[in-house]
């Protein structure tokens, strides 16, 4: 689930609201520990949610492609207001929530609390718009507009939005990469923002790729940041990460929300210099990893590529960024952990031989071929210094990327996936869309394999048996397994929730262990189990893009799209002492089945964390730091069914299935 907007109740600080990318609004009454679906608007990104500070049951939301919506019952139900086709921004007039401004392709105003809306058409273009207001002068309204992704104009009203005047910025593009505003690049309205000083109505900040500042009410703008650290130092500008999604004043400080985190200008009206912005992102584990590679060593070395934030390496328990742009597939050399390989968007190949302190580009195997956004890049599991890259055909290098040779026919599309068998490096699988190909000779003409449904999201070959292959797919069957090298396939779906199966990996544990990572959660199965079992082990609710196993430290590593990298002991590993296990087994949970309450009794003084999950892996109950000597969970409002109760303490993690049979069901 993608959180696209967030609001906090003005008088109940534990109540949060967030809007998704599919028109849903969720609510939490416990500071975000658990959430419930509050209401559904029309499909589209919920761009913004605002709450009337005087009457909090009145809320407004804007939705891409759908318009502006209002709720009078704190979000339980919504009605569309105004004639706007695509809602982008919405603001109360400072100090007067009965006057509201909303924007999309047009600019709209209400003076009666959102009941009736008037479209203001004077002087505007046809692009999407954002709004800037300030308590420094409640009558002044700024509107910024995009045109085909670049800067389209800045408009100013001095009469509370009744009419606007367009400022003259001929041939200026403040949404591009150039700090001279003279390029034709831009990603608006995705990257577009405006904020006005809370004390100086003439101090206006706008943003696209970089940030800009005006001290004369929008008549002139100067850059306040450059999107590269080197460029910022050279031009004596502040640095904040590229692609600014929003600007926000909090008191006298200006916050910048970008694809690289949160930056703050503590004195946004002061001198612009390299120290203009401070990065406040330290401690936020929010990397959106596409792929990771882990070493087979202890301590582990990890290299992973992330959306908008390059390729990072985890060395000696510290993360460092070693390559920029968008980071994609990456791996650690199997014989020398100071050698790291990585990719950038669409197949830019890079290599470091000093643990990520420096790197060089690797020549593209074939300049005539296109790579996918995430281009497959793999190391041979047996041959030293041998690597593979897949564009429209599969290429092999036996000298670490110095020279390349094609080892497959040219396919009809750029390739999405590539895997080499650990037990026999002549057996290689590759895939794009719903097409899966295989070679058993390390090259030549690859044969197509069929017998499954859906497009392929991931391939895994058993470490000891190259004939055992698993694929995760977009079909309703989720996962297919073949034991004859892809000749025939058996669907393995039982126990999996109705979520996308994105990543898969075999565990060489003697039981054909198999993990699958989904849009939310990790699941496990082996030949002793008849169905998949949840294996999320306190993972956050986030998309799982890749799974890797380190056979030395016996841990499963998970690349998440939004919460960094996580690790846990593989299935069957015990990190607890015999005494700890015995102590956990003394936890009493009753009655089971339960109709009203689930009671927990444990004669242990340690404070614990209690979580309850439904079968879809959704956490529906969370309490932290509680004593379990006599603890009750009220389940009367829950639907009947099976749940997983998980207790986490200093002594370990204890999970038990609980049956709930509520009287109302």
What's the helix and strand layout?
Elements: E1 5-8, E2 16-19, E3 24-28, E4 36-40, E5 46-51, E6 59-63, E7 67-71, E8 79-81, E9 89-93, E10 96-103, E11 107-110, E12 118-120, E13 129-132, E14 141-147, E15 150-157, E16 165-166, E17 193-196, E18 204-207, E19 211-214, E20 222-223, E21 225-226, H1 229-235, E22 238-239, E23 244-250, E24 253-258, E25 261-265, E26 278-279, E27 289-294, E28 302-306, E29 311-315, E30 318-323, E31 327-332, E32 340-344, E33 348-352, E34 360-362, E35 377-379, E36 387-390, E37 394-397, E38 405-406, E39 417-420, E40 428-432, E41 435-439, E42 447-449, E43 456-461, E44 469-473, E45 479-482, E46 490-491, E47 501-507, E48 513-518, E49 522-525, E50 533-534, E51 544-550, E52 555-560, E53 565-569, H2 578-584, E54 588-590, E55 597-601, E56 608-613, E57 619-626, E58 631-634, E59 641-649, E60 652-660
Parallel strand pairs: 21-22
Antiparallel strand pairs: 1-2, 2-3, 3-4, 5-6, 6-7, 7-8, 9-10, 10-11, 11-12, 13-14, 14-15, 15-16, 17-18, 18-19, 19-20, 23-24, 24-25, 25-26, 27-28, 28-29, 29-30, 31-32, 32-33, 33-34, 35-36, 36-37, 37-38, 39-40, 40-41, 41-42, 43-44, 44-45, 45-46, 47-48, 48-49, 49-50, 51-52, 52-53, 54-55, 55-58, ...
């Amino acid at each position: 689930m993608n959180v696209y907007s967030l609001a906090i109740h003005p008088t109940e600080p534990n109540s949060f609201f967030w809007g998704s990318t599919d028109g849903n609004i969720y609510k939490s009454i416990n500071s975000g520990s658990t959430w419930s679906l509050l209401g559904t608007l029309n499909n589209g990104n919920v761009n913004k949610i605002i709450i009337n500070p005087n009457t909090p049951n009145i809320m407004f939301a804007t939705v891409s492609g759908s318009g502006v919506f209002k709720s009078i019952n704190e979000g339980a139900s919504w009605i569309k207001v105004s004639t706007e086709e695509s809602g982008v921004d919405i603001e109360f007039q400072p100090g007067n929530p009965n006057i509201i401004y909303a924007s999309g392709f047009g600019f709209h105003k209400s003076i009666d609390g959102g009941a009736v809306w008037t479209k203001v058409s004077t002087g505007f273009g046809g692009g999407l718009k954002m709004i800037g207001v300030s308590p420094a002068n409640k009558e002044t309204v700024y509107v910024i507009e995009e045109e085909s992704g670049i800067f389209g104009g800045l408009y100013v009203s001095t009469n509370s939005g009744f009419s606007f005047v367009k400022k003259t910025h001929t041939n200026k593009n403040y949404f591009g990469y150039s700090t001279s505003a003279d390029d034709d690049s831009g990603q608006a309205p995705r990257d577009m923002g405006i904020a006005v000083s809370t004390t100086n109505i003439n101090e206006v900040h706008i943003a696209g790729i970089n940030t800009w500042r005006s001290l004369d009410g929008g008549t002139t703008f100067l850059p306040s940041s450059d999107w590269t650290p080197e460029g910022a130092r050279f031009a004596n500008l502040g640095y904040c990460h590229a692609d600014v999604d929003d600007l926000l004043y909090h008191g006298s400080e200006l916050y910048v929300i970008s694809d690289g985190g949160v930056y703050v200008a503590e004195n946004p009206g002061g001198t612009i210099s390299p120290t203009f912005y401070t990065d406040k992102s330290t401690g936020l584990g929010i990397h959106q990893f596409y792929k990771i590679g882990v070493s087979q060593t202890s301590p582990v070395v990890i290299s992973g590529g992330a959306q908008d934030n390059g390729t990072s390496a985890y060395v000696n328990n510290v993360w460092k960024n070693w390559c920029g742009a968008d980071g994609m597939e990456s791996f650690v050399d199997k014989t020398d952990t100071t050698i790291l390989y990585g990719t950038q968007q669409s197949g830019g190949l890079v290599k470091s031989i000093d643990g990520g302190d420096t790197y060089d580009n690797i020549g593209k195997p074939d300049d005539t071929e296109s790579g996918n956004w995430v281009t497959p890049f793999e190391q041979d599991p047996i041959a030293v210094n041998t690597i593979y890259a897949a564009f429209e055909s599969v290429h092999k290098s036996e000298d670490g990327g110095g020279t390349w040779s094609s080892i497959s026919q040219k396919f009809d599309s750029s390739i999405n996936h590539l895997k080499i068998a650990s037990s026999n490096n002549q057996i290689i699988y590759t895939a794009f869309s719903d097409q899966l190909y295989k070679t058993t000779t390390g090259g030549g003409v690859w044969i197509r394999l069929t017998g499954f449904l859906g497009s392929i999201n991931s391939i895994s070959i058993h470490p000891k048996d190259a004939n055992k292959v698993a694929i995760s797919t977009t079909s309703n069957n989720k996962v297919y397994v073949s034991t004859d090298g892809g000749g025939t396939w058996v669907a393995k779906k039982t126990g999996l929730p109705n979520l996308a199966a994105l990543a898969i990996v075999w565990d060489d544990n003697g039981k054909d262990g198999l993990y699958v990572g989904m849009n939310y959660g990790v699941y496990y199965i082996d030949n002793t189990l008849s169905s998949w079992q949840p294996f999320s082990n306190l993972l956050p609710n986030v998309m799982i893009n890749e799974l890797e196993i380190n056979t030395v430290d016996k841990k499963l590593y998970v690349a998440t799209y939004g919460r960094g990298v996580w690790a846990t002991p593989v299935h069957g590993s015990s990190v607890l002492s015999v005494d700890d296990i015995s102590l956990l087994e003394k936890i009493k949970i009753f009655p089971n089945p339960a109709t009203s309450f689930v009671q927990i009794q444990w004669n242990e003084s340690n404070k614990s964390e209690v979580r309850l999950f439904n079968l879809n892996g959704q956490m529906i109950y969370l309490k932290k730091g509680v004593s379990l000597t006599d603890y009750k969970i009220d389940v009367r409002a829950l639907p009947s069914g099976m749940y997983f109760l998980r207790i986490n303490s200093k002594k370990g993690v204890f999970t038990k299935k609980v049956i709930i049979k509520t009287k109302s069901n």
